[in-house]
Design goal:
Blueprint (H helix, E strand, L loop, with lengths): L16 E2 L6 E2 L5 E3 L2 E3 L1 H9 L9 E2 L1 H15 L4 H24 L3 E2 L1 H31 L9
Parallel strand pairs: 5-6
Antiparallel strand pairs: 1-2, 3-4
Helix pairs in contact: 2-3, 2-4, 3-4
Amino acid sequence: MSEAVACQTHPTVAAVDRCAGCAEPFCGNCLVELYGQHYCGSCKVMALKGQPMPEIGNVSCKEATTALTMSIISLFLLFCPIVGAILAGSSLAQAHKASLLFNADPRLTGKERMRAARIIAIIAIILAVIIFIVDKAMQVQDGGGGRRHR
């Protein structure tokens, strides 16, 4: 494993792999190899009995969906660039939270939504900055007053 994750059974021992059945991290003493896969004690029993295992990759990550929704809405709020940028920033924070959840639980799906949310939010922030700068430049050009309404 790339990160120092603790064993589910022994919190003071580093995990060496995840169980093929439940995807939880376990140390070498807790895992057994069966049918070319590593299983914890509970999942090993189910594998030997031929019972169905919990499927990996079947749990939708709601944080990724929320991040994508927020980033799309931030594009529509660019008429007020500060509000759009704030929502886009919140979307990036939500996408980061989803990223941490994906690293912790391989059963989660929705990495594409998380990536799309990041891209859209970054574009929204860049557009918000450009709109803000152009708006301020137009105000300076108009004599420093507020927005002109005709």
